[in-house]
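Thread: Modeling a multi-component assembly for a lab meeting

Hi all, long-time lurker, first post. My supervisor asked me to bring a structural picture of a complex we are working on to next week's group meeting, and I have zero experience with this. I have the sequence lines for every component (1083 residues in total). Could someone generate the structure of the whole assembly? Inputs are pasted exactly as I received them:
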Amino acid sequence: MTKLYQGATGDWEAVIGLEIHAQVISESKLFSGASTAFGADPNTQVSFVCAAMPGMLPVINEECVRQAVRTGLAMGCKINLRSIFDRKNYFYADLPQGYQISQFKDPIVGEGHVRIDLEDGSTKDIGVERLHLEQDAGKSMHDQHPTMTYVDLNRSGVALMEIVSKPDMRTPEEAGAYFRKIRSLVRYAGTCDGNMDQGSMRADVNVSVRRPGEPLGTRTETKNVNSIRYVMMVVESEIRRQIDVLEDGGKIDQETRLFDVATGTTRTMRSKEEAHDYRYFPDPDLLPLEFSQEFVDELAKDMPELADAKKDRFVAALHISPYNAGVLVAEKESADYFEALLAATVTKSGKPLSELGTLVANWVIGDLFGALKKLGVGITKSPVSIDHASELLCLQIDGTISGRIAKEVFENMLESGKSPEAIVEEKGLKQVSDTGEIEAMIDEILAANADKVAEYRGGKDKLYGFFVGQVMKQTGGKANPQVVNQLLRPKLDG
Amino acid sequence: MSVDKETVAKIANLARIEVSEEELESTVGELNNILDWVEQLSEVNTDGVAAMTSVVAADLPWREDKVTDGGYREKVLKNAPQAEHGFFAVPKVIE
Amino acid sequence: MSELTKMTLSAARDALHKGEISAVEITKAHLAAIEDAKELNSYIMVTDDQALEMAAKADDMIKGGNAKGMTGIPIGIKDLYCTKGVHSQTASHILDGFKPEYESTVTANLWADGAVMLGKTNMDEFAMGSSNENSYYGPVKNPWRAVGSDKDTVPGGSSGGSAAAVAADISIATTGTDTGGSIRQPASFTGLVGLKPTYGRCSRWGMIAFASSLDQAGPLTKTVRDAAIMIESMAGFDPKDSTSINIPVPNYEAALSGDIRGLKVGVPKEYRVDGMPAEIEKLWQQGINWLKDAGADVVDISLPHTKYALPTYYIVAPAECSSNLARYDGVKYGLRVNGNSLDDMYKKTRAEGFGDEVRRRILIGTYVLSAGYYDAYYLKAQKVRTLIAGDFKAAYEKCDVILTPTAPSAAFNLGEKVSDPISMYLNDVFTVPASLAGLPGISVPAGLSAEGLPLGLQLIGQAFGEEQLLRVAEVLESAASFKEKPAKWWGEKA
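Re: Modeling a multi-component assembly
Sure thing. I ran the full set together rather than chain by chain. Output:
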């Protein structure tokens, strides 16, 4: 059932498409040997090619080709063995060539689709129209000087993948889920770092509204939206704005809009957008980009496992609940941490993977995520190393400490950064499993509480917990609960 | 097909070349002469003919992904009409 | 003037190698001759100091036993080549003051072999023209004048300065560039040998682009042997140019065996164009006879799409130029004319910086690529271009090399055709088809017109068939035995 928006005059349906620009992970630029590293001083990562000096020519970076193919494979798209680089001609201060080398008619990656997960537990397939390689522009700074704009060409020529969706989304939630999904795919595939605050990923958001069943309305395009939340805000506010305009008898202009973070709304660009005429034509400095199916197969063979496959594997092989598996794979770093921890724990404990999956997953999601959230840091900044974490879990698995003590040790690890073994040793937190010692303790307790023993034997079963509590109290919580049970029950039952 | 003043003004704007009102008139004539002359191509039957993409049969060479260039800001900015604080400077752009 | 300036490149090379003359001596002789020939306006910039430094180094190379074909040879470089720290403006105002921080691959190759740069030669702005009247630095005068006339004639274009310099003995040889005939037509107008190699034979890196799919570097020389020596130094694969071809450079001079017995020379009937002067028709027939006498077989061939070559060229070349010249925007280098906004600055800069012909071609190119016209013009032209290349392919089933006139007339008077672009364009009617097909062509001086002006014949070879092309050209050259020189009317009277 398509989500509808209520207006004063009836229902409306929104149609949303996203063009996502994802910066390719590569050492050097798409057509020049200058570095792509983020944050350098202005114009220090600029070659004569990047600055479009007279007589300079482009030579393609093979890794960028591979990355585009990998991304295409991750999205289940058709890979085009022959594609063409075109010039997109327009003038702008940070476009030194006066054209952007892009792919117009024949992109490197064709159609495919991705599946998005929605909050109600349902899924939806969103079509991918294409992916093409293109050059990024430089950066214009308008606020450094009262009458001048400053131009930094460090980004000029960095490889971008433009991933164009089909207009298959209908709600802000779907747009957000799609953006999140693409981000997850490129990050798992290792083709884009997805760092939105560094501009590695941004979206142009196309929105139109129509009466259900009617042809497409006029769309607006909001450029350079750089977070999932903002994409959802843009969609929400554009839907509302367009419905209001149309219901007031106005019409929607096909225009480029800008997102205003402060107000959470979009506004029309102040500069007069003239009718674009990009005059695309094949770049005569380059030949067609061609490769074999074997080249694609080779890349497919070496593709890293993607989130969906990982989730399925966690459920099937590790017996982790689908919900928890979903939580673990949502961010590649979490999944990586989990898998590394699981592997370390398997090695240390000697127990099989399938037995440890749930324990490790529960610890990561429950204990670790909770602690990280409190600390306000991401998993890559976790104060607890894989080594220490696996040590802690092993102490629990081999019965050295109880689950309750483990939590206490973990708290201590977060504060002190010490190894769990050291903490257990230092604080004498080792679990008491010595049956003789525990038996003597039980005898003492039963003798001291003869009245309660009598009540229990008289049918007051609930008192069992009282005796366990007494044992634990005496051992400072270190008594092995299983051993306590084994010994206590027969003694009480007489 | 021929161009009129309005079209020439539009093309000149796309090409970012200022053409004065007087020049516009003569430019219309010049361009139409040339366009009329190239018009003869329409008589060639090109059904099923592929457009030329490169005159030589060769494979596009691929470059290894290594940082081999850049890191010479002075040289990049040396010929700039106006450069300040390591940036190219242009008249202010309002978005 | 010194006899040193009268030497051919091969004679100078032999004398240098034998130590009979020094590079400094021959360089000085040429610098003096340049000073004497200022009114030809063939040099935009003379690099005296640099020339003498390079000559001294060349002498060291020779003494050290490392002499190559070009060592110590003083040459002029077309202003279109980027030469490090030296005026490189493609004779345009838009590149005002531009001194590149890099050296073009072709000139770097020449300097590595010990060639000596005398200076930068005049040309039609951005290589657009056939008379060298479109230079920001004023027209070049052809050393040749009609017998009994004191009217200036044009040296052809766009490599007019390069041609005039060699014809006037103020450079032993020069580099030119050929997009639609810019080496061959001026060679014909000035009694020289002009070679345009196969597209991809020489690197375009550091050559200021006019039309990327057509531009090629080549030499203008006094003899075919000179051309063979010089092209060997200029040519070669360059990983910085994606359209340069990785084929070894042969010893071209070794190919000049003088033996063309059994070789099949094609004569295309479509080159007998309406209104071709009888003397050119006659010269062509003479050429056919010379090659026959040398033992070649002459075959009639057909290149059916010949008449469409010029209109095709005048769509493709302007389209590419409109995009290639977008980088001249007053931001990174060259001229800036201030305006009240970025766009205003662009428009004023480009209006003032580009000359009439360049502006005309940018506008035509912008138009043929614009929305709604792309298919009818640009795409159509690229399809016809395929047919033109196909014509040559079919012809080479029947013949090894093709003989045609180089230009439809001898040099015309300065100012005669400036106001009629199309009649100017028709100058390239015989040279453009080979350019569109990427094939090598060479113009060889073959005789004088009734007015006493030089006329050339063109040989068109197969892709990368320069050895055979040069071999036939040398046979043609010896048969024609063209020894005439222009009567000196400039400078100090001899």
